[in-house]
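Entry for phosphoenolpyruvate complex. Fields follow.
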Amino acid sequence: MRKNVIAGNWKMNNDLNASIRLISELKKELSDKNPNVKIIICPPFTSLETASALIKDSIIELGAQNMYSEESGAFTGEISPNMLVSVGCKYVILGHSERRTIFNEPNQLINKKIKAAVKNNLAPIFCVGETLSERENGITFKVVEQQITEGLEGLSETELQNLIIAYEPVWAIGTGRNATPEQAQEVHKFIRELISKLYSSSFAANITIQYGGSVKPENSIELMSQPDIDGALVGGACLKADSFIKIVESI
Ligand code: PEP
């Protein structure tokens, strides 16, 4: 049975002291009373090592927000997969829309990053989603299909055992405007069917597909109750312990 996964993408927020404060608040409230939910936090690189030590012996797991596709070398400012593993990361967000738009990351680079992640036993949280104009032009499915087929090209079902897909409509990220549960469910169902065609129906049935885009306590119950939505990738609402905890509890 697939597991629900709630992941908090802290983005470029929280210096080391603020990270320590937020993690200690989360740890106080998040226990294993929610056995069917996996909880992941993705702080900035500078807080990862400390976060890893702080969440030891808790149910919280650690992810990074990005990485480069090479193992080492002359790539000033970049972080490699094994560096993330060495500080305790198990997950890495790849293909986030902010990386795609602000840093011009194409599907081909995201594909290389996913390959590097799986080679290093890091589970990718692979983000896909259409812009507002793409939705208005009726090409949401086409865009998402291209992101997935190009992003996963050359990767086998065995290599993708720990893959998490996050459907994040770009127009809903950080805007306060979430997709309706029906809009989100429609795309999640499409993604599961696509994965079934590209791989197998059993793989598709077991893959976690998160929704992301202005998830908050007020809308999470309705979104999470859709049959193909298996958790959330949360931005703004994960920066306050109480709202992140409420989202976890809505599962
Ligand atoms: C995100 O950054 O992945 C995200 C979904 O952000 P927000 O929840 O703020 O829309």
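NOTE: The chain has a mean pLDDT of 96.
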